[in-house]
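Ligand-bound model needed. MTE.
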Amino acid sequence: MSQKIRSSEITSESTYLSRREFIRTAGVLSLGGAFLAACGTSTAEPTAEGAAAEGGAEAVASDVPVDELGRASNTFEEITNYNNYYEFTTDKEDVAKVAEGYVTSPWQVEVGGLVNNPGVYGMEDLLSQFDQEERIYRLRCVEAWSMVIPWNGFPLRKLLEQVEPTSKANYVRFVTIQDTENMPGLSSPFYNWPYQEGLRLDEAMNDLTLLATGIYGKDILPQNGAPIRLVVPWKYGFKSIKSIVKIELVEEQPSTLWMDAAPNEYGFYANVNPDVDHPRWSQGSERPIGQFQRIPTLKFNGYEEEVAGLYTGMDLSVNF
Ligand code: MTE
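Prediction:
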């Protein structure tokens, strides 16, 4: 739904990246040499010149994949070098290095629980049985940074329709691989491994809910959750569980790694909501990775029209 321009129809990614890098570098230089990390930790206010250069980037790079709000996608570099994947490491800028070479083939996803047709799907089945679409989605991390990512994948709904949830199924539970030999972060005693997440069945069936297998038309890299991960764009990023090995239809609301870790901070719903602050920080604005200035956070991350109806009558400050 969110696709205005297919990335395959536009300037090649490398042409785009080199242009954008050039313009961004010009912007950084105009700040008098201030260093801006990929995560944009600098609090320096941009000069007028810097802002113009940055604005120029949007104008010149108008052929990049943009979302339906007109926001340009982050670069492949940014998307693959600033990650949250606690099974590898909690250092966002080190995930790519620690996860490098992680083997995700062969891979199977077990789909079962309260369904008529349980099955074990190999990655090759998932790639051949379901048409892979491009979806350009905003990703809003609960930590108040954000990106725009051109995913490839297919709606979770299509897989669920194939396994046929029974009338008792109310929720979907997802589980990440727990590979203690190759994922050093799993030695942390602070989390109840494996990483688990959950959705209500109607949330899982919403057309926006994606099983992603690619980024910029390439296979997902380990740091982004290879070979298959969930993307739920109207919820905080932690709901978008990576490297899924199990999908289970269940009757009761499942617990999640983050609810187990800090139930007062991370609720089951985790809908992006600028009106409900995290106990330790504001959720009113966010820092787009690769930009100078914060922007206001949108309710349901800008997908209100598509999903607000799922929560009619619910108090979203209680069901946070
Ligand atoms: N999935 C697993 N298995 N482990 C994680 O640590 N982090 C989550 C989510 N999925 C996480 C995970 C968080 S907090 C975010 S913001 C997104 O992945 C980040 O996705 P990205 O690194 O592809 O941008």
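The pocket of MTE is lined by residues 83-87, 139, 141, 176, 195, 224-225, 237-238, 240-243 (CB under 6 Å).
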